[in-house]
Design brief:
Blueprint lengths: L2 H9 L1 E3 L3 E3 L10 H15 L6 E5 L4 H11 L3 E4 L12 E7 L6 E7 L8 E9 L3 H12 L3 E11 L4 H7 L4 E11 L4 E4 L4
Parallel strand pairs: 3-4, 3-7, 7-8, 8-9
Antiparallel strand pairs: 1-2, 5-6, 9-10
Bound molecules: guanosine-5'-monophosphate.
Guanosine-5'-monophosphate (5GP) binds next to β2, β7 and α4.
């Protein structure tokens, strides 16, 4: 069993609307051993791809993305949710992302300077739910004329629509942990077989 799955079983807390809180080790307080596992597993899966850049969205994606980028020895770029005063309209790629947990839609952006047509971009995020964050990142990559090498996810909630949406967009999705069901009443998590 993966260490990440083990920690989810021990420390995950289920919230309404199928939200899993694992901020004691993944996206607030961070367990470096979880990060090491994510780094190694995502590297193993995507190492055949000629990755030139790792892309994520702030803030929770940054920690796993920097680990994976370090292993590939390429830069990590994160999409920003607020516009820096130094980034003019003509100098940025921008798209809209609806946040599953916050239920708000925001513009996210990256500087054109850091994505170009010859990039092979690996997209990383902490969770995959309905796929909106990853689809937004795919849009940014494609605006630059760059190639999406794949999407690497720490925790996929497979009962939501994200995987289907990403596969429909033609990208390889790999998730370390796949959750098949969450039961709020009994506080039970069912994992997909082999995940
Ligand atoms: P999606 O865009 O795929 O619908 O949702 C993924 C994004 O929403 C991730 O970036 C993650 O931050 C957040 N998210 C979705 N589901 C969960 C969840 O169950 N727990 C936490 N902590 N974040 C989630």
């Amino acid at each position: 069993m993966s260490y990440l799955k083990d920690r989810i079983i021990k420390d995950g807390i289920i919230y309404p609307n199928n939200v899993l809180k694992i901020d004691s080790f993944l996206n607030h307080q961070i367990d470096p051993k979880v990060m090491k596992e994510i780094e190694n597993e995502l590297y193993e899966h995507f190492k055949k791809e000629p990755i030139t850049k790792v892309l994520t969205i702030e803030a929770s994606g940054i920690a796993p993305a920097i680990m994976v980028a370090a292993h590939f020895d390429v830069p990590m770029l994160f999409a920003k949710k607020t516009k820096p005063s130094t980034l003019q309209k003509d100098d940025r790629y921008e798209t809209q992302v609806h946040s599953y947990t916050k239920n708000v839609t925001s513009n996210v952006m990256v500087s054109k300077q850091y994505l170009s047509a010859d990039d092979h971009v690996l997209i990383i995020d902490d969770f995959l739910a309905n796929g909106q964050a990853s689809l937004g990142l795919i849009d940014l990559v494609r605006q630059a004329g760059a190639t999406v090498a794949g999407v690497g996810i720490c925790v996929e909630k497979s009962f939501q629509d994200g995987r289907r949406q990403l596969e429909e967009a033609g990208v390889d999705v790999y998730s370390i942990v796949r959750i098949e069901a969450i039961d709020n009443d009994t506080q039970t998590i069912t994992f997909a077989e082999g995940h």
